[in-house]
Write a structure and sequence with these properties.
Elements (H helix, E strand, L loop, with lengths): L3 E3 L5 E3 L3 H28 L12 E6 L13 E7 L5 H15 L3 E7 H10 L1 H8 L2 E5 L1 H17 L1 H19 L17 H12 L8 H21 L8 H10 L5 H30 L10 E5 L2 E4 L2 E4 L10 H12 L5 H10 L9 H11 L4 H11 L2 H5 L20 H12 L9 H10 L10 H15 L4 H12 L3 H8 L5 H11 L6 H19 L6 H18 L12 H4 L8 E5 L2 E7 L4 H11 L2 E9 L5 E10 L7 H12 L5 H11 L12 E5 L7 E8 L4 H11 L3 E10 L2 E9 L9 H15 L1
Parallel strand pairs: 4-5
Antiparallel strand pairs: 1-2, 3-4, 3-6, 7-8, 8-9, 10-11, 11-13, 12-13, 12-16, 14-15, 15-17, 16-17
Helix pairs in contact: 3-4, 3-5, 6-10, 7-10, 8-9, 8-10, 9-10, 11-13, 11-14, 13-17, 14-16, 16-17, 16-22, 17-19, 17-22, 18-19, 20-23, 21-23, 22-23, 25-26, 25-27, 25-28, 28-29
Length: 772
């Protein structure tokens, strides 16, 4: 086979197009299989005993790659000679085996009766897998049919035990061989996502527990098989590990431009196989569970338009496919619950669901942040969306980094997977920054420039600016994202390559974060958290204790240099809301997702109102409360349904008025609701953090609470503050994706800020206990 020819510029170009090259390889395998079948059949038929029917009572079977007509130049020939207790079968076997050995082919062989083969298959997994795909080459057809029927019957009858064993074997192999999609020098056959996994999927399908591999998986398998074939031809050896020095030659043999194109195609195929395998093994796991009495499948709401059914997330019957946030909201619900998306749901979303238009509505952006904020559980859900082609439809620039290899030993993932891993890792650091939404999105985009020529930090900043606007962030937030991507290597490179005792080193950092005036400290803390997430997602060789200490110290010194700014003012409301305070007694206004209350100020007003909203299954997205120096307090909430339709505004307003009149026992009703809800453990999330912010106010103590959002969160925090005898003078409550960032301005019974350290510690302890 001609691999390549020279060009005028000294480069090499494929001698054939990829389809031509692959067609030639497939044709070569088919021709070789046919020739081997003819030769082996002739060996078996060369009977030397007069008067005996040629090859009577025996049959020659191919198992393994030759049975599938997939034998590559370096592959082993695996044959089984089956007989009916025939005399002289050893001579028949020798008549086949010796010529094969003489030819130089590597041979794995056995001679068995039907019962012997059946007994071996019951105890030996390799033998069982081989016989499940056995193909007759020559000999008695009824003998072959009898054996195949017996092996299949045993495999299906004992499927629970055998599939459990097979799953354990696969996990052990994956642990040893790693992920095919992300290895620099992968084993094409044995690594996770390789050829062996497709063969195992076919064996599982033979048990009738799961469907056979679909067209996408078969196409991925065929590409990996062609690559293995080209590797064997190129090296003249049987090894299946695609080492670096062979990748360019294999790429040329396949009609691909270069080794990067080859590795990108391997990553895409392997991820297709792995994703399909994940779904198959979930089916197997459910099948292997102890049998229980049949019960109707429960449907548990897990979000607006989203329910859990049989361990998967599916669309609710009333889901609005025209909602541009639906795809991301479904994905976020699945990640937050630690559940997979049902394949049928993904197919329906890909075919029918609306996509958000630029700029994205806040609901879509919030769902994206919630998805990323789920941490490691987001990775599998993201992969599912990617396999369905939804990620590149949501974020077109993603196509340039999708499956792009990173050809150095420091990076353990392709560019796109590294970005998702970094965002998932950043979820554990959301307590460290004021804007967890910007941290998560910045982590997702920090290497997006690797899909473009030139310095990826410079090019990526431009892409991040465009994507930030596309996602609907405010202009100032877009500038922060752009700065994060442009300088995401600033802290790690400066901390490890410069003398941090030199004032110039610190000034280099402060000058970079000054690109966003007024938000320098915010940008610094975002860059510090991003450095951790990026380093940990890169690999163990890119992150360590010394590097972490250096970055922490450099960040501390830069923050000290930036210190001296004025603290943020207490939260305030606009005139249109304060106008309600003119009402005598109390006023309640419900306008869509906006709920405003004006009432005489008193302890517990905020959290009792939040409790009423929780009773009506409303999730508080924002809350502002201001006493405004008068006896009347104004509370302003933005709240959306946890799932389903919004509550009746009249009923909500009525309950709020009952609460204000002390005629509604909010705590008792919330307790009854909590007891009636079946709770399923979700994904692990970072622990909540309660911080007393020093010097943020001269008239109140500022308590900042960061926690994973959940129904009734504001109620629990406010109740804890109330138990401490504190009054909330002002509050600023925000939910960014799945993270709550709540700030409370509190005073004691005398209206003064807290100064006693023990009292402050008790406040922190009680709030944390309420969030546990």
């Amino acid at each position: 086979m001609v691999l390549a020819h020279g060009t005028a510029g000294g480069e090499t170009r494929p001698a054939r197009t990829a389809p031509e090259a692959r067609a030639a390889l497939a044709a070569a395998r088919a021709a070789r299989a046919a020739e081997l079948d003819r030769w082996l059949a002739g060996l078996l038929a060369a009977e030397r005993v007069p008067g005996r029917e040629a090859s009577g009572g025996v049959a020659l079977l191919a198992v393994g790659s030759h049975a599938r007509r997939e034998l590559t130049p370096g592959g082993d020939l695996d044959l089984v000679l089956v007989h009916r207790d025939r005399d002289g079968v050893a001579e028949v076997a020798d008549r086949v085996w010796y010529p094969v050995w003489d030819s130089g082919l590597r041979l794995d062989h056995s001679v068995r009766t039907v019962q012997e083969a059946r007994d071996v298959a019951r105890t030996d997994m390799k033998a069982a897998l081989g016989l499940l795909s056995a193909r007759r080459i020559a000999g008695e057809q009824t003998l072959v049919d009898e054996l195949r029927a017996a092996v299949l019957a045993d495999w299906r009858a004992d499927a629970r035990r055998r599939l459990g064993e097979l799953a354990a074997m696969c996990r052990e192999r994956w642990e040893t061989q790693g992920e095919l999609a992300f290895l620099l020098e992968p084993d094409l056959k044995e690594a996770h996502g390789g050829l062996r996994d497709v063969h195992v999927m076919q064996a599982v399908a033979a048990s009738w527990v799961a469907s056979a591999p679909d067209a996408r998986v078969r196409a991925a398998h065929d590409l990996l098989l062609d690559i293995r074939h080209a590797l064997h031809e190129s090296t003249g050896r049987s090894a299946d590990r695609l080492v670096l020095q062979e990748q360019q030659a294999v790429a040329q043999a396949l009609g691909l431009l270069d080794a990067d194109a080859l590795m990108r195609s391997i990553a895409e195929s392997a991820r297709t196989v792995t994703h399909a395998g994940d779904h198959l093994w979930r089916r197997v796991e459910r099948f292997c569970r102890p049998r229980r009495a049949a019960r109707p499948a429960e449907r548990r709401p897990v979000g607006d338009g989203v329910v859990e059914q049989d361990g998967e997330v599916v669309l609710a019957r009333n889901a609005d496919l025209k909602d541009p946030a639906l795809i991301l909201r479904v994905a976020a619900a699945a990640a937050q619950e630690g559940l997979p998306l049902a394949p049928a749901t993904v197919d329906r979303l890909a075919e029918h669901a609306a996509l958000p238009r630029a700029p994205w509505p806040a609901t879509a952006r919030d769902a994206l942040v919630s998805l990323l904020g789920a941490g490691p559980a987001a990775i599998g859900v993201w992969e599912t969306l990617d396999q369905a082609g939804l990620i590149v439809r949501l974020l077109p620039d993603w196509e340039r980094v999708r499956n792009r290899p990173q050809r150095n030993p420091f990076h353990r993932y392709t560019v796109d997977r590294h970005l998702v891993e970094a965002a998932a890792g950043a979820a554990a650091l959301t307590r460290e920054v004021a804007r967890p939404d910007l941290l998560l999105v910045g982590a997702l985009l920090h290497d997006i420039g690797k899909g473009y020529p030139g310095d990826h930090s410079v090019g990526g900043a431009v892409v991040a600016r465009d994507l930030g606007a596309r996602l609907g962030f405010a202009q100032a937030d877009v500038q922060v994202l752009e700065t994060m991507v442009r300088h995401h290597l600033l802290l790690p490179e400066t901390a490890t390559r410069r003398d941090i005792d030199d004032p110039v080193t610190v000034s280099t950092v402060t000058a970079a974060v000054a690109a966003v005036p007024g938000r320098e400290r915010e940008v610094l803390e975002l860059l510090a958290a991003l450095a951790v997430a990026d380093g940990q997602a890169t690999g163990p060789s890119a992150w360590g204790a010394w590097k972490a200490r250096q970055i922490t110290e450099l960040t501390r010194r830069a923050a000290a240099a930036l210190a001296g700014g004025t603290p943020p003012p207490p939260p305030s409301l606009g005139p249109e809301h304060l106008a309600l305070a003119r009402h005598d007694g109390a006023a309640v206004r419900v306008a869509g997702s906006r709920i405003t209350i004006a009432a005489p100020d008193r302890p517990g007003l905020l959290w009792r109102a939040a409790g009423v909203l929780a009773l009506h299954r409303l999730a508080v997205k924002t809350a502002r409360t201001v006493a405004n120096g008068t006896p009347t307090a104004v509370l302003d909430f933005t709240a959306v349904p946890e799932y389903g339709s919004p509550p009746d505004p009249a009923a909500l307003e009525s309950d709020l008025r009952l609460m204000l009149a002390d005629r509604l026992d909010v705590a008792a009703r919330l307790d009854r609701r909590a007891r009636s809800v079946r709770v399923r453990p979700g994904t692990p999330v970072p622990p909540p953090r309660v911080t007393i912010v020093d010097d943020a106010s001269h008239t109140a103590t500022v308590v900042e609470v960061r926690a994973h959002d959940r129904p009734g969160l504001l109620w629990r925090v406010g109740q804890a503050l109330g138990e401490c005898g504190l009054q909330v003078r002002g509050a600023q409550v925000d939910t960014l994706g799945a993270e709550a960032v709540d700030v409370f301005y509190v005073v004691d019974a005398d209206g003064a800020p807290l100064t006693d350290g023990e009292v402050l510690n008790e406040v922190r302890r009680k709030v944390l206990a309420a969030l546990a």
